[in-house]
TrEMBL record:
CDD domains (UniProt xref): AdoMet_MTases
The keyword Flavoprotein belongs to this UniProt entry's keyword annotation: no
Reactions mediated catalytically: guanosine(46) in tRNA + S-adenosyl-L-methionine = N(7)-methylguanosine(46) in tRNA + S-adenosyl-L-homocysteine
Alphabetized UniProt keyword annotations: Methyltransferase, S-adenosyl-L-methionine, Transferase, tRNA processing
Source taxon at top rank: Bacteria
Name used for this protein in its record: tRNA (guanine-N(7)-)-methyltransferase
UniProt entry tagged with the keyword tRNA processing: yes
Binding locations of substrate: 153, 185, 220-223
PROSITE patterns referenced in this protein's UniProt entry, alphabetically: SAM_MT_TRMB
Purpose of the protein: Catalyzes the formation of N(7)-methylguanine at position 46 (m7G46) in tRNA.
Protein species of origin: Inhella inkyongensis
Length: 241
């Protein structure tokens, strides 16, 4: 599993409307002094607390970012290196990063501050609940899911995030023409993603099969090392019809 240089938000999803299961597994990890300091000093500026909005209500993201712009949600950004690079490359787009692990949140806060990235905010919470409670319907220009936990063992496959029920629910939050971009270095999960996404009538594949890696997604150190060793990486880019 690639993790954008650290385990990303580990996806453990079952259908959103069935038994409530978090979209991650909480795992421990050491935090550096810089990450701790960032959480203490930078969180008020760049983080948004999770808000349990009533159904039908949502966060005023135009107010949060101070402008109207296309908005992309990232599910599980790991240590945030790729997230910060994408935000810097695409300053005309606003990014909402969801991650539960404090070390990754602290690291991304440092990168946001160092790069003075005004188009990136963090919500330290389960991405599925952020979607349901904080994102307006039909408002997102895109969703990124890079290197989620593949749950290798067969008995754990039900914990993978990309399942038909989740994708159907996700569609409610995508604007017409918006995209869903997933990437994985675990071929069986790539095959499952391709099957699930292709079977959803509300989506169409922008490519004949797997996608060419879009220029905006940078290679992580983990991914580059894997490619040198001959490991594969599979990108999928689907669009809401």
């Amino acid at each position: 599993m690639d993790e954008q240089d650290c385990p990303a938000e580990d996806q453990a999803a079952t259908p959103v409307h069935a038994r409530r299961v978090k979209s991650f597994v909480k795992r421990g990890g050491r935090m550096g002094t810089g990450q701790i300091k960032a959480l203490q000093e930078l969180a008020p500026k760049y983080m948004l607390p999770y808000a349990e909005q009533a159904p039908g209500l949502a966060t005023d993201w135009d107010g949060v970012f101070g402008r109207q712009a296309p908005r992309v949600l990232e599910i599980g950004f790991g240590m945030g290196d790729a997230t910060a690079k994408i935000a810097a490359t695409l300053p005309h787009i606003d990014f909402i990063g969801c991650e539960v692990h404090e070390a990754g949140v602290g690291a991304l806060l440092q990168r946001i501050d160092e790069g003075q990235l005004t188009n990136l905010r963090i919500v330290q919470h389960d991405a599925v609940e952020v979607l349901e409670r904080m994102i307006p319907k039909a408002s997102l220009a895109g969703v990124h899911l890079f290197f989620p936990d593949p749950w290798h063992k067969k008995r754990h496959h039900k914990r993978r995030l990309v399942q038909p029920a989740f994708i159907k629910d996700l569609l409610q939050y995508l604007a017409p023409g918006a995209y869903f971009h997933a990437a994985t270095d675990w071929e069986p999960y790539a095959q499952q993603m391709l099957e699930v996404l292709s079977a959803e009538g509300g989506l169409k594949n922008r490519f004949p099969g797997y996608a060419e890696k879009p220029d905006y997604r940078p290679l992580t150190k983990f991914e580059a090392r894997g490619l040198r060793l001959g490991h594969g990486v599979w990108d999928l880019v689907f669009e809401k019809v």
